[in-house]
């Protein structure tokens, strides 16, 4: 009588993060002299959670990010004079445009938030991730009591 060989299949399962399982941390980054695009890409990676080994695309795994010194963010070349930030008021003839340099002087948070927003997913999850971004023009911010980790950008 011939004995049948038993084949044992090992089943490997992928671990998937669920909402509320991933502990959120606070991270801070100083924008002084850092190029706008490089800063935005580093911040977007942390907001999405791609810096973590337990990253899951459909779950918000990212950390909170505090950006300080937004008024000193670097713009390479002649972008401060030539590149335009525009918005539409909704009225006829209401297309307004100003240079990146004047936007940086007037309200520097807009430049960084807009650059990061365009690097995040364009859905509800992306809007939820953007709420974890805190941008301040100077070094003072209301999150001083939080134990934030320095993000090297």
According to CATH, the homologous superfamily of the domain at 26-75 and 107-150 is: Ribosomal protein L13
Radius of gyration: 22 Å
CATH architectural type of the domain at 26-75 and 107-150? Alpha-Beta Complex
Spatial arrangement of strands, main beta sheet: 5-2-1-6
Mean pLDDT over the residues: 92
Note the main sheet: 4 strands, parallel
Based on Cα principal axes, name the global outline. elongated
CA-CA gap between termini:
69 Å
The CATH class assignment of the domain at 26-75 and 107-150 is Alpha Beta
Order of helices and strands: EHEHEEHHHEE
Helix percentage: 25-40%
pLDDT < 50 runs, ≥5 residues: none
Q: How much of the sequence is in beta strands?
A: 15-25%
The count of strands amounts to 6
| CATH domain fold name of the domain at 26-75 and 107-150 | Ribosomal Protein L13p, Chain: A
- State the helix count: 5
Structural class: alpha/beta
Describe the protein in words.
This protein has 153 residues and is of the alpha/beta class. It has a domain at 26-75 and 107-150: Ribosomal protein L13 (Ribosomal Protein L13p, Chain: A, Alpha-Beta Complex), CATH 3.90.1180.10. The chain is 27% helix and 16% strand. It has a 4-stranded parallel sheet with strand order 5-2-1-6, covered by helices on one side. Helix 3 crosses helix 4. It starts with 25 loop residues before the first strand and ends with a strand. The mean pLDDT is 92.
Attribute tags:
Ribosomal Protein L13p, Chain: A; 4-stranded parallel sheet; 5 helices
Helices and strands in order, then pairings?
Layout (H helix, E strand, L loop, with lengths): L25 E5 L5 H13 L15 E5 L10 H4 L1 E5 L6 E5 H7 L1 H10 L6 H7 L2 E3 L13 E2 L3
Parallel strand pairs: 1-2, 1-6, 2-5
Antiparallel strand pairs: 3-4
């Amino acid at each position: 009588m011939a004995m049948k060989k038993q084949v044992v299949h090992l089943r490997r399962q992928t671990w998937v993060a669920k909402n509320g399982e991933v502990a959120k941390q606070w991270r801070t980054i100083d924008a002084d002299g850092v190029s706008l695009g490089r800063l935005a890409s580093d911040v977007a990676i942390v907001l999405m959670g791609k810096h973590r080994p337990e990253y899951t695309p459909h779950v918000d795994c990212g950390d909170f990010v505090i950006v300080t010194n937004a008024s000193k963010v670097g713009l390479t070349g002649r972008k401060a004079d030539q590149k335009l930030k525009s918005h539409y008021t909704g009225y006829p003839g209401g297309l307004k445009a100003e240079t990146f340099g004047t936007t940086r002087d007037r309200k520097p948070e807009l430049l960084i938030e807009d650059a990061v927003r365009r690097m995040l997913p364009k859905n509800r999850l992306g809007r939820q991730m953007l709420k974890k971004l805190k941008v301040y023009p100077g070094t003072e911010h209301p999150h001083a009591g939080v134990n934030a980790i320095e993000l090297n950008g």
